[in-house]
Design goal:
The structure is a homotrimer of 269-residue chains. With 269 residues, the first copy, chain A, is α/β, with parallel strands linked by helices. Chain A has 11 helices and 9 strands.
């Protein structure tokens, strides 16, 4: 059951290094603290590898990246690889610019990325499909679950890693086994950084269970979606996306393996 | 009625590119999502123009700017101009340093800025008056409404754009017609980034109604002030500025054209 | 009584320049507004000194620092020194990298720092002890109060400044007189940036009472801990660290000297 991965995360309490965007960095840090992990953030090229060496996992996020960010990410990633720490890549808005596309390609070519977490348009860009990107907080709708699964599986096989594609249906696959996850609610799409937070959460799950990337990533996706459902159920009249943002983190804070086992909704294909 | 501009914003759901400070970037992004728009943030010079090309409007904010930020803003602004997207400038703390003054001057000289949104001391600096700046979250009080209107009108005429000067009384003018807006509450002055959020909101309104900058900016100012009033009315004993911050975004999340029409308080001169 | 320092802070309403990390910058700004001060943030080297000149106090925080941040901090710090403004240093994660260790050493050697605020592992690094750093949000436990006091006193004497070492017991000392402070709650350790916020709060207290650094820093530590207790008492079932984060700032917003006098728990040694 996926709940055991959350219990292990709380027991392990890994320190996770995030090279992530400044828009959602605070939420990423608070979410890591909520799940029992601890955050450390440094995106300075001369600092990144040394910081990674203190930690147990690495989360690379392309939002608000700079031209020099790739150097930080490569330095940290090579150190993480040397130490056997799992690396997660969140290719935020990779369709929006050539800087981001080049960076994502370089990171995937050079680093043993354990998991890629993105929305449909981002995963499609990495898989080499030509899609129109529409910002970083939205994906396109209307594709069949089968299409989405195929896309995720292809990228997972091509890159030899786990792919977590989140959207209307969340798909987590290593190319072979695939979790179709039904947790979450549309209102999460109106909270900035819900995806960034999920990526950091998945990095923490992977850091606590490095030998079980697929299950760890699936557990993270279920936990984040379930947190959204719990948060939504607590909304009072007048509460909107800012309050939902707080309640999602709060829900992770109180979640344990038992709650996750009871609330997770998925099938394995 | 101004409410129709909010309805159009929700229908249009524009993607807005913000080059904005890291202090309030999260609130800016959540406010854009609250009003029905979507945010994308990139301040990397080599990335900015390409990101702008995916969007419908541009918000330039001088808070925490770097020496290289001007290049990003110019590149994004020139692309926005080429595409006919409205550009909004928020000259945060422009009185505090020569870097910011020079940047604001350059941006206004080179770009067809549609709207400038600032507090009294910031607008006064742009209008060439010598005033003492006191931080970025406060303006000076005590000036007559007439003085404030004259200042805003002069800058609007000099720069050929809409000026939204917010403070005790909010003034939105194109130099010819002037909205005097009575929405808002003093408690908003204790929420960091209330001004940055308003600027992003105004950029979204302009992006949805590019042919009606004056009315769109006035609608944004009314909507933000009204959100502050709604948020204040929901405060419980013990709630302070951090909770008010969330409730303001929540209030925008639930606002529609009808609510705005009922709550907007303004006169046109 | 320490409450008088809070009353003076609210009367003085100092503008405080923060060169601080982007993870917690928003909370730092809102906390400064909550206590009656105002924030201005600029970390651009060519901007920093000029911004400092508009303010009354300076808070230097090493979280997410860049290689060029030291130049900004030195420029701002030299201007603050020239103007007689108090400087506070928060050596976030100083044990995690040589960049941060070098920066902290340089700043302490070159600037008349009035107060250092850090956790046990950070203070130990500055005092020259070899400790294992574990992220920025946690310290090590298990040391006796006497050990902690000795460490803080030694650094205070060596650097000729006030040291505020926060953890299970908070110690504020000038090397001679020592406040042992019992306010706060363990749950604050799960809110990212509680330390950064305390540092900014202490910088504001120092800016309002520059002649009484020890008492001002002790008042800030009591006020922040008391805010955590008030916030915790307001938590409803299901509320977690994200809601606690808001309520801490809210509690500062409503705190006055009388409340602080009643709630402060400390002894002087």
């Amino acid at each position: 059951m996926l709940g055991s991965y959350l219990d292990r995360l709380r027991e392990t309490a890994p320190l996770v290094h995030c090279i992530t965007n400044y828009v959602t960095a605070n939420d990423v840090a608070n979410l890591l603290l909520a799940c029992g992990a601890s955050p450390i953030l440094s995106d300075e090229p001369s600092d990144a590898a040394e910081v990674t060496a203190c930690t147990r996992g690495l989360c690379l996020n392309l939002g608000t990246m700079k031209s020099w960010s790739v150097d930080s990410m490569l330095a940290a990633g090579e150190e993480a690889a040397r130490l056997g720490h799992p690396i997660l890549l969140d290719p935020v808005g990779v369709g929006a610019s050539s800087l981001r596309r080049t960076a994502a390609g370089l990171l995937l070519d050079r680093l043993p990325v354990a998991c890629i977490r993105g929305n449909l348009s981002e995963i499609a860009v990495l898989a080499g499909l030509d899609v129109e990107s529409r910002g970083v907080d939205t994906g396109r709708g209307g594709q069949s679950t089968e299409t989405v699964c195929t896309l995720a599986r292809e990228l997972a096989k091509a890159r030899g890693c786990v792919v977590a594609l989140t959207g209307q249906t969340d798909v987590v696959t290593d190319g072979d086994r695939t979790y179709l996850i039904g947790n979450g609610c549309p209102e999460m799409g109106r909270v900035t950084g819900a995806g960034c937070q999920l990526s950091a959460l998945a990095a923490a799950f992977l850091a606590a269970s490095p030998g079980a990337s697929l299950e760890a990533a699936a557990a993270a996706v279920c936990a984040m979606g379930l947190a959204g459902e719990i948060a939504l159920a607590r909304q009072a009249p007048g509460d909107g996306n800012a309050t939902l943002r707080c309640r999602i983190i709060d829900a992770v804070y109180h979640m344990d393996g038992h709650t996750l086992n009871k609330g997770a909704r998925y099938e394995i294909r």
